[in-house]
Amino acid sequence: YPQRWYEAGMQKPITNAQLRVLMAGIRCKLLNTGCVTEVDDVIYKIKDNMTVKEVLEILYTMIKNTEFNKDIGIVAGENALDYMAKTGIFTGYEGELSLKDICTIEQACAIATRLVTYLYDVLEASSKGFLWEIKSGENTAYLLGSIHVGNYDLYPLSNKILKAFAESDVLCVEIDFVNTDVNMMTSLYMQYAYYTDGTTLKDHVSEETYQKAVMVGSSLGLPEETIALLKPWYLSSVFSAYARTTSNIYIDLGIDMRFLLDAYLKGKPVLELEGYEFQFNVLDSYSDELDEYLLLGTLDLLTENNPENNTYGKEVNLLLKYWHDGDEESIKENMPILLYSDFPQNISEEEKQVYALLEEYKNKMFTQRDKRMAGLIDELLNAEGSTTYFIMVGAGHYISDYSVIDMLKEMGYEINRIK
Questions:
Q1: What pLDDT shows up at residue 307?
Q2: Per-residue three-class SS string for the chain
Q3: pLDDT digits (tens, 9 = 90+) for 217-232
Q4: CB atoms within 10 A of CB 230
């Protein structure tokens, strides 16, 4: 639903026009499943101030007049309320309005969301992601390999993922960026993202890379004076953020944000595995050569062909599709750094330099952090008591040639992939 609805107040009665917007959204989501075979033309009589019962009946009529290539659970002689109750789309509990009450915008949006989530699940169109389960004594850990950014096509998530989260007592994440102290963040950025030793970007990268960074920065409204003071790893993140927004990819739609917000709304404890300062230390430890290599890669993606139609968005959208499909092999192929372990034979000196940089990147971004993550998960699983953890870190940490999963298996854990 449009964000302006939320800003204007969700407790107002849903209007005729707003309900039609919701229905159009549901229809688009259903068409995106690839499971719709036919849609009957129906003129819906919608009015303002409809009751919850009337909204349920309208939505039921809409899906009943849509033919799917899979069974969605509608049986002969069943009415709308029976269907909505048996599927959990309307429960009548936990503060929901009664059937005779005027339906609010909030309740209509909740019903629409549950309807889409249910239908995607039975149509096997939900995002499958990468989920594993480990049991140790009385403790359980669900490991979810996340994608830190997202788009609307990534949702809804499969009920298996949602069920695992619902059963968990604690959410574990790399960084809790929902509960962040602004003053602390400002201090960390000044400490790690800016040159404070009297040098500037010019002293750490080639003239060609510097000028390219200035050019891209200028297109974003960043003056050269600012660009010169920023370190390459931070510039890469700034430019990547711009590339995401022009490609309709957002951090707010990432898997991390989805579960962090859910945890806070439900009062579920959140445990940080790393935190901002830990990750800033990792990024700040890159050699000048690796820093420039990564920055240049980001700049090239942004400036290739038309800057407004950069390849960055295409690559991220591919990763999102692989995550949606639970396609582990394709995500590895698209991120070869996850598979890289040894130098290829018979390569040039220039290629050796590149592989040396890739080795540094993988060691610092994955190998060292993976060992630490595996150790922390081992501690949680061996802690006293009976606790279920939902441990969500970037998918790359669970999928590589020697991942957190592999390390935990070496420790003796039996790990089951939930598909």
A1: 44
A2: CCHHHHHHCCCCECCHHHHHHHHHHHHHHHHHCCCEEEECCCCCCCCCCCEHHHHHHHHHHHHHCEEECCCCCCCCCCCHHHHHHHCCCCCCCCCCCCCCCECEHHHHHHHHHHHHHHHHHHCCCCECCEEEEEEECCEEEEEEEECCCECHHHCCECHHHHHHHHHCCEEEECCCCCCCCHHHHHHHHHHHCECCCCCCHHHCCCHHHHHHHHHHHHHCCCCHHHHHHECHHHHHHHHHHHHHHCCCCEHHHCHHHHHHHHHHHHCCCEEECCCHHHHHHHHHCCCHHHHHHHHHHHHHHHHCCCHHHCHHHHHHHHHHHHHHHCCHHHHHHHCHHHCCCCCCCCCCHHHHHHHHHHHHHHHHHHHHHHHHHHHHHHHHHCCCCCCEEEEEEEHHHCCCCCCHHHHHHHCCCCEEEEC
A3: 998 889 999 999 999 9
A4: 21
Query: What Rg do the C-alpha atoms of the chain give, in angstroms?
Result: 25
What count of residues does the chain have? 419
By CB neighbour count within 10 A (0-12 exposed, 13-18 middle, 19+ buried), where does 281 fall? middle
Could you identify the residue written with the tokens 């920065």?
A: 217
Residue found under tokens 């639970």: 326
Taking the alpha carbons of 46, 50, 56, 57 in that order, is the dihedral positive or negative? negative
Cα–Cα distance measured from residue 236 to residue 214, given in angstroms and rounded to the nearest whole number: 12
Per-residue model confidence (pLDDT) at position 219: 85
Distance (Å, whole) CA 405 – CA 386: 22
Which parts of the chain have pLDDT scores under 70? 94-95, 304-311, 336-344
Q: Are 123 and 70 in contact (CB under 8 A)?
A: yes
